[in-house]
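C-alpha cells as discussed.
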C-alpha cells in the first residue's frame, strides 16, 4: 500500500466528500459544485485508486503498479492546477458576484420606482416553508408551482399590491423555502401584520394543502434594522434598513460549496417613474446606494 502522506490523505478526503455529495447522494440533484470542486471532480472523479481508498480501503499493489498510480495522481493534480489558471475558471468564480450585483440593482430599481409612485408603502415579509414531515417529498418543480400559485392569488386578492420579490433557498433540514417580500400601497392598507398572517395561511393551507408552514416576519420584527411595515418616502432610516434587507436577499456567497441551480431571485416588473411635478409635499432627492457598499464575506 502507499505510505501515509499528507497530500495523499487530503486528496482521498476531498475525493470521498465531493463524489458522495454531488454524484452519489440525492442532494446532488439540487446543487452543483463550486468552480473549485467542479474542476477537482473533472480531474479526479475517474481515478480508480482514490475510489478504492476512499470508499473501501487502500489497495495492495505491486511496486510497478504503485509507481504508475503515483504518476497518474501527480498528472491529475497538475491538470487540476492548470485548469484553475484558465480564463473560464476565473469567469466562473465571478459569476456569483455578478449575479448578486444584478439582483441588488433589480431590488433598488423596483423599490425606487415604487417610492416614486407611492409616497407610502406597507412592506410585508413572509417566509414560506414546508413541514418537517413533507420537506423530503417536495422537489424543485413542486416548490416552483406552489410559489407561482401563491403570487398569482395574492395579486388577485389584494388590489393594493404594487410589487413583490422572492428568494429561493434550500437546506438539508428545511428543504426548499422562499423568502417573500410584498409591497402594498400604504394609503390603501395599514395592518401589515394581518396581511402577513393572511398570506402565510394562504400558503400553508390552500396553496400547499397543509404541507406548508410559514413565518410572519412582520409579527416578529425584532430586527436590528427593521425594513418591514410602513415606509414613507422621506424615511431615510427605513431606507437604510431596506438596504440591509437587499444585501441579505442578494448577498454574495463565494465561500459556499454548493449553489442552487436555476433562478433563485426574482422581482416584479418595476412601474414607470412619473414625469413632471406631482401634487403634495415636494420630494427631496434621497441618497443613492451602491453594491460596492455591501459587506461581502
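Sequence:
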Amino acid at each position: 500500500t502507499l505510505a501515509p502522506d499528507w497530500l495523499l490523505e487530503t486528496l482521498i478526503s476531498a475525493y470521498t466528500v465531493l463524489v458522495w455529495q454531488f454524484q452519489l447522494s440525492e442532494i446532488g440533484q439540487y446543487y452543483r459544485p463550486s468552480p473549485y470542486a467542479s474542476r477537482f471532480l473533472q480531474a479526479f472523479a475517474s481515478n480508480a485508486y482514490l475510489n478504492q481508498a476512499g470508499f473501501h480501503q487502500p489497495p495492495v499493489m505491486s511496486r510497478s503498479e504503485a509507481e504508475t498510480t503515483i504518476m497518474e495522481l501527480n498528472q491529475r493534480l497538475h491538470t487540476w492546477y492548470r485548469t484553475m489558471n484558465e480564463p473560464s475558471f476565473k469567469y466562473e468564480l465571478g459569476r456569483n458576484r455578478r449575479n448578486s450585483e444584478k439582483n441588488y440593482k433589480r431590488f433598488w430599481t423596483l423599490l425606487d420606482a415604487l417610492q416614486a409612485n407611492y409616497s407610502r408603502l406597507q412592506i410585508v415579509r413572509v417566509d414560506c416553508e414546508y413541514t418537517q414531515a413533507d420537506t423530503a417529498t417536495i422537489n424543485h418543480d413542486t416548490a416552483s408551482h406552489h410559489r407561482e400559485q401563491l403570487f398569482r392569488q395574492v395579486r388577485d386578492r389584494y388590489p393594493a399590491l404594487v410589487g413583490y420579490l422572492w428568494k429561493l433557498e434550500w437546506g438539508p433540514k428545511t428543504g426548499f423555502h422562499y423568502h417573500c417580500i410584498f409591497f402594498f400601497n400604504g394609503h390603501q392598507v395599514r395592518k401589515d401584520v394581518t396581511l402577513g398572517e393572511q398570506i402565510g395561511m394562504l400558503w400553508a393551507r390552500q396553496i400547499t394543502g397543509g404541507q406548508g408552514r410559514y413565518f410572519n416576519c412582520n409579527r416578529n420584527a425584532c430586527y436590528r434594522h427593521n425594513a418591514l411595515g410602513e415606509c414613507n418616502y422621506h424615511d431615510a432610516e427605513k431606507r437604510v434598513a431596506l438596504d440591509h434587507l437587499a444585501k441579505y436577499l442578494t448577498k454574495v456567497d463565494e465561500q459556499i460549496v454548493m449553489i442552487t441551480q436555476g433562478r433563485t431571485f426574482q422581482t416584479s416588473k418595476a412601474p414607470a417613474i412619473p414625469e413632471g411635478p406631482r401634487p403634495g409635499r415636494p420630494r427631496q432627492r434621497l441618497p443613492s446606494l451602491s453594491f460596492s457598499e455591501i459587506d461581502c464575506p
